[in-house]
Specification:
elongated; 251 residues; eight-stranded mixed β-sheet; Rossmann fold; binds NADP nicotinamide-adenine-dinucleotide phosphate; alpha/beta; ProC C-terminal domain-like fold
Length: 251
C-alpha cells in the first residue's frame, strides 16, 4: 500500500519513521517534504493533487482548519483516506471526501518508535480489503484502540497530549532528585527507566494500576508518604483539569 502524506510536519514525520518505509509527501514548505522523503527513501511531490493521484492511501497530516482547502485538491483523485486531524469527526471527513473509504485515527508521538497509542474511530465496514490493510498499517505503530467517534477527542486528550505530560512529570521528578544532590543524568536515567519499566509491568498486569501501587506501598512506608503528599498537592485534580482544558478547546 503506497502511503501519501498531506503535510510533512511533526506527526507525519513520527508516523513515517514508525512505518519505516518510503512515503510520498507534499507540504507548503517544500524543504520539509524533501527532508521527510529523503529520510524514508520516498518522494516529495509537487503538490497535494499529485500525492492523491499516486498514493493508495492518502493520510491527512495537515491542521484541521485546512480540511476544505486540502479536500479541493485531494478529493478528485484520492482512492482512500485516513485522517489524523484533531476535532474533525467522521461526518466532516466523509462530507469532504464522499464515496470512498475514509478512516479517522489519532496517533501519539511514540508512534515514531512503534510504541504509540493510536485511537481509531469506530465505523461501519467500508471495503473489507482496505479496512484490514489500513488497520494493519496503523497497528504497526503501536496499539490501536477503537472508540466511538464522539469519544475520539476525549481519548485524544488522554493519549496524544500525554507525551508532553509524561515528559513534564519526568522533568519534575528529575529536578526534585537534583535538589537533593543527584546529578541530572543520574536522576534522568532512574526516572525514565522507571517510567518505561512501570508501563511494561502495568501491561503485564492487565493495566491493574491499584495492584502495582499496592505492591510498592508498604503500610506506613515511604511510598505511602510520597503518595499522600502527591494527593495533597492535587495530582488527580491536576489531570482532571488538564483533560477539561483540552476538551474546552475542542468543543
Ligand atoms: N502533534 C500531535 O501530537 C498530534 C496528535 C494527534 C493528532 N494530531 C493532528 O495531526 C495534524 C498535524 O499535527 P502536527 O503537530 O504534525 O502539525 P505540524 O507540525 O504543524 O504539521 C502540519 C503540516 O501541514 C502543513 N500544511 C499546512 N497547510 C497545508 C496544505 N494546504 N497542504 C499540505 N500541507 C499543509 C504545515 O505546513 P505549514 O507549517 O507551512 O503550515 C505543516 O508542515 C493536526 O491535524 C493535528 O490535529 C497531532
Amino acid at each position: 500500500m503506497k502511503i501519501g502524506l498531506i503535510g510533512a510536519g511533526n506527526m507525519a514525520r513520527a508516523m513515517a519513521r514508525g512505518w519505516g518505509e518510503p512515503v510520498l509527501c507534499a507540504d507548503p514548505v517544500a524543504g520539509r517534504a524533501r527532508e521527510l522523503a529523503r529520510e524514508t527513501g520516498g518522494q516529495a511531490l509537487a503538490g497535494n493533487a499529485e500525492v492523491a493521484q499516486q498514493a493508495d492511501l492518502v493520510v491527512l497530516c495537515h491542521k484541521p482548519a485546512q480540511l476544505k482547502e486540502v479536500a479541493a485538491e485531494v478529493a478528485p483523485a484520492a482512492k482512500a483516506l485516513a485522517s489524523i486531524l484533531a476535532v474533525t469527526d467522521l461526518q466532516m471527513l466523509k462530507q469532504a471526501y464522499p464515496d470512498r473509504p475514509v478512516y479517522r485515527f489519532i496517533p501519539s508521538l511514540p508512534v515514531e518508535v512503534r510504541q504509540g497509542a493510536v485511537v481509531q474511530a469506530a465505523d461501519e465496514p467500508q471495503d473489507a480489503q482496505t479496512d484490514a490493510a489500513v488497520h494493519d498499517l496503523f497497528a504497526r505503530l503501536g496499539t490501536v484502540v477503537t472508540v466511538e467517534d464522539r469519544l475520539v477527542d476525549v481519548a485524544m486528550g488522554l493519549m496524544s497530549c500525554a507525551p508532553a505530560y509524561v515528559a513534564l512529570i519526568a522533568e519534575a521528578q528529575i529536578d526534585a532528585g537534583v535538589r537533593h544532590g543527584l546529578r541530572a543524568d543520574q536522576a534522568a536515567g532512574l526516572v525514565v527507566q522507571t517510567l518505561a519499566g512501570t508501563a511494561e509491568l502495568l501491561r503485564q498486569r492487565e493495566y491493574d494500576t491499584l495492584a502495582v501501587r499496592r505492591e510498592v506501598t508498604s503500610p506506613g512506608g515511604v511510598t505511602a508518604r510520597g503518595l499522600a503528599a502527591l494527593e495533597r498537592s492535587g495530582l488527580r485534580t491536576a489531570f482532571d483539569d488538564a483533560l477539561d482544558a483540552v476538551l474546552g478547546g475542542t468543543r
